[in-house]
Amino acid sequence: xxxxxxxxxxxxxxxxxxxxxxxxxxxxxxxxxxxxxxxxxxxxxxxxxxxxxxxxxxxxxxxxxxxxxxxxxxxxxxxxxxxxxxxxxxxxxxxxxxxxxxxxxxxxxxxxxxxxxxxxxxxxxxxxxxxxxxxxxxxxxxxxxxxxxxxxxxxxxxxxxxxxxxxxxxxxxxxxxxxxxxxxxxxxxxxxxxxxxxxxxxxxxxxxxxxxxxxxxxxxxxxxxxxxxxxxxxxxxxxxxxxxxxxxxxxxxxxxxxxxxxxxxxxxxxxxxxxxxxxxxxxxxxxxxxxxxxxxxxxxxxxxxxxxxxxxxxxxxxxxxxxxxxxxxxxxxxxxxxxxxxxxxxxxxxxxxxxxxxxxxxxxxxxxxxxxxxxxxxxxxxxxxxxxxxxxxxxxxxxxxxxxxxxxxxxxxxxxxxxxxxxxxxxxxxxxxxxxxxxxxxxxxxxxxxxxxxxxxxxxxxxxxxxxxxxxxxxxxxxxxxxxxxxxxxxxxxxxxxxxxxxxxxxxxxxxxxxxxxxxxxxxxxxxxxxxxxxxxxxxxxxxxxxxxxxxxxxxxxxxxxxxxxxxxxxxxxxxxxxxxxxxxxxxxxxxxxxxxxxxxxxxxxxxxxxxxxxxxxxxxxxxxxxxxxxxxxxxxxxxxxxxxxxxxxxxxxxxxxxxxxxxxxxxxxxxxxxxxxxxxxxxxxxxxxxxxxxxxxxxxxxxxxxxxxxxxxxxxxxxxxxxxxxxxxxxxxxxxxxxxxxxxxxxxxxxxxxxxxxxxxxxxxxxxxxxxxxxxxxxxxxxxxxxxxxxxxxxxxxxxxxxxxxxxxxxxxxxxxxxxxxxxxxxxxxxxxxxxxxxxxxxxxxxxxxxxxxxxxxxxxxxxxxxxxxxxx
Length: 874
Fold this sequence. Notes:
50% of the residues lie in helices and 17% in strands.
């Protein structure tokens, strides 16, 4: 079957409806039943139960569930119940946060669909766009959104903004003319077709609907999104690997310890129960909860800073980003044409320097307002973006353009058309009838016989035209869209005709562009400082894209820009080599965007993709972190993204990266705290086993430590105040494990100190011949020592004599609460039986406090020595 753009309007009507007449009511019902509603289908959301069950897929959690089952079988129901409560609380927390993030996005989607003017039963009626069906004839005026795909039947000077679909920021001229041939042509060149997601900027039209819902071009892109799999963030990958390795090590260690206890004459049941208890103590089961809580606080912080997180792990994933692939239109630019320069007297004048006291500049401004079909009343802009840009100059100059139009009303006109590339209007100015002409500069120069220069009118020379054409080309190379202006006196009684558009007086030019957002340049510079490479990917023209990229610092040399056609025939391997040298991609399709993102991912990079258009959606889904614009972004783009920016501000992404890096650092602090404390407990138990001493800790001791005195400080470390110095670091490699050599060394050193002081307390109590007293002192010292250790984990540098020591109110609170709880357990007689401890004397209690606090100066001293050694090496 021929494509609709290769068919005449009559052929399309016959093909779609079987008749040239509009749809009848019965046909409308048939078509709705056949084609469905005019809606984009989004992927079904997971149920609450699905989200809840997904929380149990973690390897550490599976080990804990097995431990709980074994504990229950052996009769230790307390341990089994405690373990199950912990992992269930974690699952509930993760489920609630995930659902909350989805509901945050829903608030952005509560926008009713646009209505459309549809021909039904011989009358034009206003209907919701969802009720439009194939075969309907839709009427459009300037400012109308296009609700479905279709073939144009009637058009009057029609221009359409297709930027959401193609990425082009300049309006596209549309006609009814059949495109000859049978080969498929690019969407942007289908000048007799209209597509949903676009809107009319100029003129009017009627078209027949040929595709709705998922059968539109927008729908095809939505379908493409389904093929892009969700990506795990580096933290997710690291935690999965970390959990598996840690669990295996702990299980091996517990197995060895079980064997040692049995060989030393202990009962198999007791030895097994203690091995299980030690496994529970060693495995940081609170880690998943802590990570979830820290990320949850991160989402709240980022929401206040205009970034809504749809997927919880995206908070940290942003901190790992090394490549940001950004769309141009609406993301790096304002998606609003703006006058950059006036050009009169062969001189370029910045829009900031326009002077209404200059006769020629005032005349150019006045003519740009009069020969103009756009309007801007009370901030509501209607019309072609280039024409509204001309009017907006009046706002900057505090001039009311409607007063100028009222003073010099339009008396006659010749509308713009693509063949002449100009439009003309007639006005009486200061009692003289004048024709004002606006259009392509080269066309006006070919029809000009005179030029106005320095207030004088003289014949235009070949040199004049050459100079103006050179400057016009210079504007074009800078990505500016240029309109030329000319005029001439006419006879009062004349109605303008095409013949009048000759023998013109050339006045000047006005250059416009969709300018960069004010914050884009600073944001790009911040990205580079943080080791992140910004890449521009756009459907716009190469010249325009390169000009914007140069302005904001993405592009340094023209050789770093290319068009999508250059990568069309490249293999994936060739593209991976090619992307290293390119910073700007122009005239690209949605398929090109996905390939570019994937090429960077294959090179080991964490890629963020930003965009607002429907054409960005597949790449947003393919990227590790998809970032959509909340205000101008299409619903398809938002659904495909992990992050939605409520202020459409590129700089917010950089702020989000900073938050992500701080959160990852804080999560590592929490992991350091948990593992070093657990390692200290393991060393203490191992020492007791090797030295054939009684087991220093009862299973309930280890559970108390994990559930109460560990969790609160770990969460508090996850909420450590953010700092800007994280942006001075390069992005961490995606393959980098959490357990780096230096990180393991810190765990080992800190754990050794904690284990040593705990065993010193145990041996002091054991000398009295009372095993319960020894166990109580070891338990209390380990608990308090780990609480104190939270302050050691704040930084890899000494903090004991700095302001940073007291800057985390959550850690101070966790320390105070934990200390009170431990003291109550060992001093209140009613709790002794439950926690298998005995009451300490004041002397013994002070000794425990002293030993527990001793790990702070010892570890701080070790850090001071390590820092000194590093500085000496440098």
